[in-house]
Design a protein that fits this description.
This protein is mainly α. It is built from 5 helices and no strands. The longest helix is centred in the middle third of the chain and has 32 residues.
């Protein structure tokens, strides 16, 4: 596949993707009580969730762990966006960043559609 993004090299893009995937992997490490409690947890909400959803404490805790991991992953994706814009050095204002992001989305969508058509 031809690399058509002129604001970031394919190598730099792959580095950012790799680093982000590694951060996802870090979150798969097992949770102990200390790690679980390292984030703010609303015990009242957990009690309501347990009562309303009629689930076990184990399921409630597993859901909370999933929520914490997902929130951290969303933060990592935000950093991924920021790092790509920093590398490009072409972005000088929020307006330009928004336009660049739209450009990336359009390019990605086109590439995904091409891949989809190729493998149908």
């Amino acid at each position: 596949m031809v690399w058509n993004l002129d604001f970031i090299s394919e190598e730099d893009f792959k580095k950012h993707v790799r680093a982000t995937i590694m951060k996802y992997g870090e979150k798969l490490e097992s949770y102990d009580l200390k790690r679980f409690n390292s984030n703010l947890i609303d015990p009242i909400k957990l009690i309501f969730d347990k009562s309303v959803y009629r689930t076990s404490w184990e399921e409630i805790v597993n859901n909370e762990i999933f929520r914490q991991r997902d929130k951290s992953n969303n933060n990592d994706i935000g950093y991924f966006h920021q790092n790509i814009f920093l590398i490009s050095k072409a972005v000088k204002s929020h307006r330009q960043a928004g336009m660049l992001f739209t450009e990336i989305q359009m390019e990605y969508k086109c590439q995904m559609e091409i891949l989809y058509i190729q493998y149908m």
